[in-house]
Design a protein that fits this description.
Elements (H helix, E strand, L loop, with lengths): L1 E3 L6 H16 L6 E3 L4 H10 L15 H5 L9 H7 L1 H6 L3 H5 L25 H6 L12 H10 L15 H10 L4 E4 L2 E7 L7 E2 L9 H10 L1
Parallel strand pairs: 1-2
Antiparallel strand pairs: 3-4, 4-5
Helix pairs in contact: 9-10
Amino acid sequence: MYLLGATPAGMPYVVTALNKKLKADINATLSINYIGWSDLAAKYPLILASGEDLDVIYTADWAYYQQEAVKGAFREITQAEMGTYMPKNYAAVNKVAYSQLSVAGKNYMIPTSTPDRKIPEILIRGDLRTKYNIPAIKDMSEMEPYLAAIKKNEPGMVPMNLDLQYDIGTPFSNLEFAYGFNGVPLVGANEVYSDYMTKDGKLGDRFTLSAGDTFTKAANTMKA
């Protein structure tokens, strides 16, 4: 099985314990490999083209599903099979999902049965906040004094640990909102936004929907 991202710490111990139960329950074991975010574009298609004997790989509209499906990289999965072998998942999934993931009239993906929920979290060093007399931080817009203190006084420390593929966009977007940006990106079109502060369905880019030049302000803050 292939998943995306970095291998979580302690994952081998979890898989070992899981495999003991899987072997006893269904006479099968699971081997999990990870494709790092920085290697995704290069490794994902190569793994599927290599002929490696893999059973499961994570896929999505943003993770080469359509591109690889038309190449014949995936096995077709029918709704009849889902109803037989994954009845709980099949019962929980809205059947519209199957038409949405169809490629040339066939399905190659098992849709998730739960809504996608992301809750961004930021963890800070409380001892450093206290050391440099930084007030309690309750909002992303209040992070600047904390980061500035670390940059000034802790030259060997990275002030903010960010994955370039995903995490770096979170503080940038939060700063834009803090500076007055009102746009919400449309699904599948990250540079086209709707204005959530109005009901007229107005569309625009980051600049036309900004209350002032929030993009430049956020960029300058991130750079500093």
